[in-house]
Fold these 2 entries.
Entry 1:
Amino acid sequence: MKQVLKRYWDILRRPATHLSLGFLVIGAFVAGIIFWGGFNTAMEATNTEAFCTSCHEMKDNVFQELQTTIHYSNRSGVRAICSDCHVPHNWTDKIARKMQASKEVWGKLFGTIDTREKFEAHRLQLAQNEWRRLKANNSLECRNCHQFESMDFTKQSKRASEAHSTYLGNGEKTCIDCHKGIAHQLPDMSNVK
């Protein structure tokens, strides 16, 4: 056993041209930790409200609308920020969403939505993309805060209580089916069938 350990130790400390294999392995491990830490720090930095509202397209359009809703200001003091609703919490889904969001950055760089008029012209398409995403994941971002099992139907209006217990209970509908426009103004849907 001692000979085997000595043999491996000799391999790790023997120079591989200029550096020992052990130094390369440890160096790669440390570099991996630094890369992973930097990557996660950057990911979290792009999930902040300050980052999301740093461009005037979001600050002057959808963020202004959010500030008038219960998701921004309410009696409990709990506030939803952009990433709570628009970025999945699960890591793999978050990465996929960040890759999709890169297309939105492309739109900013090339002026697709850089004015209120251009934003309004694309608003329906942008909203439909979000609604489709939320429908596909069963409104997971809504359910991160609003859990069906925790709902007190006695404190809801009769209409809400019936809808929640009927549609959410059996999985027939998901939150976004009924709550479009809950945090932002609805786009012009006069031409939507």
Entry 2:
Amino acid sequence: MFPVPGTPAEEIRTEPAGPDGLVELAERLGAVETALKDFHRRSAHRESVIDRLHEENQSLRTGMRREVLEPVVADLVRLHDGLAAQAEQSSSELFASFADDVVLALDRCGIEVMPARRGDLFTSGLHAVGSVEECTDPALHNTVAVPLLAGLRDRDTGRIRRLAKAAFYRANETEA
């Protein structure tokens, strides 16, 4: 008979098992099986606790990162808006290049910049109307005439932080 780990040497039998020995062996195997099932149940519970704690830890770290970066993101957004406006007014490639660098910094902070582009069709939930420009061409109706401010989306949550603001064309039907 093979010894069970942790069993004292005096409890190990060396004589052949008779009918009583088989019953005792079956009882001992049943006890081992019960102990093994209990061990697996406890292990599974520990694993689920570890998984839950890991998820909570990640969530807290993400929230803390957002909280720490929020003032930086706000400043970067203001800087981007100023540089983009200056680039538009002066047609300066230098200001546009700086604005592009700020877009990269915002991206590293988890913010996606979504500019309105001339000719884009108005999309509710993405665009905000800053002003309206009358036009006679019905093909231009509800399209971006002049981009004013880029929209912002939180990449992790998908939440729109700011709608893209633009001046939109409105076709004047009486002149068309």
